[in-house]
Amino acid sequence: MKIAGFKKQSLIDYSGNISSVIFTQGCNFRCGYCHNPDLVLPERFGDTYDENIIFDYLSKYNKLLDAVCITGGEPTIHKDLPNFIIKIKELGLKIKLDSNGTNPEMLKYLFENNLVDFVAMDIKHLLEFDIYNQTVGNWINKGEFSKILNSINIIKNSRIDYEFRTTIAKNLHSKEQIRTLRKKFGTHYQIQNFNPEIVLNTNLNLEPFSESEYKELFYF
Ligand code: SF4
To answer: Among 25, 45, 71, 101, which is least packed, fewest CB within 10 Å?
Structure first.
């Protein structure tokens, strides 16, 4: 596992749980609005963590923690993710996994082996190839898009708690498109407003929704 970040304790990343958060390095998308370009663009990669440091901490404080959140980047591009999770599970901790859905085979394996307790999958846009591909930086082909659709089905049909979520930006998603996504994913769907402070692609001139617009979108 290439681990680029480690937050020892968080009360907000896995609702109702005290968790540590692990940020994996590398991603197979290039979303323009990404606020973690240091985890995505190889030319911006920094040093990675020695796993032993993380496991030393988790072993020492596992009784004070409920869970570990694994986010990225994209965690499922790391082939050793399942073994890494097994070692965390042995410490009695739950796992929340964030994913962009490009590795349905690994998700299936993790679910079948009870290695994940909660999964949050990004839904970048309407489930149409052209618009989705544009949103992720023209970085995927149709085969990869099918994998994303497959992951959605696997998650919906699993017995794992789950959430689908979209980072929304004013000049990227229309209100009507957001409404369509909310209708499709129902109570398992969340939106989060684009954060303009750090972005992967500044050329897109993306803008967040205003507070009042966001509130309206949140409830409609
Ligand atoms: S926002 Fe996109 S580019 Fe950034 S980590 Fe998530 S999937 Fe990768």
So the answer is: 45
